[in-house]
Design goal:
Elements lengths: L2 H6 L7 E7 L2 H13 L3 H10 L8 H4 L2 H13 L11 E2 L7 H9 L2 E10 L4 E10 L10 E8 L4 E7 L3 H22 L1
Helix pairs in contact: 2-3
Length: 187
Amino acid sequence: IPLIHAMQEGLAGNTITRICGVFNGTCNYILTRMAAEGLTYEQALAEARDLGYAEADPTYDVEGIDAAIKLVILADTVLGMRATLDDVERTGITLLSPEALQLAEDQDCTIRLIGEIVPEAGVLRVSPRIIAKAHPLVVEGTLNAVTVETDLAGDLTFIGKGAGSTETASAVIGDILYIQSRHVQGS
């Protein structure tokens, strides 16, 4: 999801009070499959690899590192927080069991790997969270969803594909070109 332009331009004049979302399509796919089919983490990961959603070494995705890097980029670029990867409190999904997802299901909830920034409190964290199925961040498969909370515009949720080479390239190129154009204008 190309968020930088949307936040910097579309929300000009707003104060962003919180950014919260599903930032990794690979993890979302794994958790979706575990919840839907009762698969183990290992089974869902193997399926994600077979479909090309997970790398041969999925550590960056499943340990929350990829999501943490995205938080740092947003914190720095959009919020001016001067954050580093060391500032992000991070827990991955590798220890989640089908039983944990079933317990969430029994409460009409599910588990998603959620990244969160609360600028006022200096909070940057990535961790599995239990959230109600009706919540806008509960998206399926490789989708990502990000809610931006603001003082004036309220809450805005962005949803888009989060895994797959074409989708990733589109978002990255869009944000790079936007950042480059801002840099050239500022020179």
